[in-house]
Structure formats: structure tokens, C-alpha cells
Amino acid sequence: MVRHGNTVWNGTGRYQGFSDVPLNEEGRRQAGKLALRLAREEITAVFSSDLQRACHTAETIAAAPGLGVAARPQLRELNFGHCEGLTFDQISERFPGSISIWRGVDCANPFSGGESIRQLADRVGIFLNEISAQASDAKVTVVAHSGPVAVMICLLLGVGIDHWWQFRTANASLSIVDTFETGAVLSLLNDAHHLEEKA
User: Which of 55, 82, 154, 191 could, after both became Cys, cross-link 112 (CB 3.0–4.6 A)?
Assistant: First the structure.
């Protein structure tokens, strides 16, 4: 699982959600470095959120193995509604009830005009059911956003989604979950050492 590369809004601490903000120059560079790292892997399929910051990251990764990118709206970031484009401090001031959502206290309560964590988990679950049909030895790369990646980890490991906020992922980071018939193992979390390597 990959979180998309950096955007201007990431750099200014603004919450993007469904807002279709593109990668900035740094984000494109990050995607290139991540693609070099994943070129060693025998990736069999690449899925992505349909928002351009994720799609562009996914397309960069998929280019080396010559794969297409299957865009899925279920992998979009949490819809922050009226909080989109605001910073954490601005959201805390204007929508103080939202803080409980971030800390997993209230997964059923939606952001004003947006989604709840439960709704995010429901659509991510639909996606996971879709890819469960992949071959047992498949190496699937999923490019999404911090919220969906955290929720996917919770769902795959059988951890309550109220713990979603405890799995942080940096831009262009890699997390790996190995799945088995009896369960799943979190083998790597939020690894971004490839971004430090010289091109």
C-alpha cells in the first residue's frame, strides 16, 4: 500500500479529502523514487484512487512493469465536506466536534457535509472484497491516501477501525500487508527510506 506523493496542500497542512489536488514537483519526484524501489518487485496489478494525486503516483509505479492502473473511487480519501481546504487549527476552531472523529472516538459521526470513518471503511471494504479474488501469490500495489491506507490495515489485520488514526503514513511511503487464509501480517509500515536515496 502506497500513499500518494506530496501536493501543495500537503505542504501547507490543508485537508484535501475529495478535492482533486495534483502532485507538485516534489510529489512527482517522490513518485519516481518510489517507482525505482518497487521496480524490484514482481507487481501483478496496480490499483489507485481515482483522484489525480494518487493516479499520477500509481501511473509512475506501473510504468516500469508495463501495467495499467485500475482506478477505484472506493479508494478516495475521506470526504471532509466543509472542512476541505482547511488546516487542523481552522477545523478545530470552526468544527470542534470533528476532533473526536480523528481520534477514533466517534467513527459513525461524519465531518460536516462529508463522511464518517465508518462510511470510509465500508467503501474500502468493498474494494478489499474485490481484490480478494486475486491469485494467492499476487503482489498487488494499492495507491491511495492516508485515511484509506490506515483503514485497509485495520480491516486486513482484524483491528477495530477506531484504531485507524494510530497508523500514520507519510507521502510516498510504502506499507506492506501479507495476507493468508488464516489472517494477515503487517510486514512494513510507513517506510520512506527510498526518498532519501540519490536519483
Answer: 82
The pLDDT tens digits for 143-176 are 999 999 999 999 999 999 999 999 999 999 999 9
Distance CA 79, CA 76 (A): 8
> Of residues 82, 145, 193, 194, which has the active-site annotation?
145
CB 73 within 8 A of CB 50: yes
CA distance 14 to 7: 10
Q: Known catalytic residue: 82? A: no
Q: Is 46 helix (H, G, I), strand (E, B) or coil?
A: strand
Q: Is 145 a catalytic residue?
A: yes
Q: How do the residues of the chain divide into helix, strand and coil, expressed in percent and rounded to 5?
A: 45, 15, 40
In angstroms, the CA 113 to CA 102 distance is 16
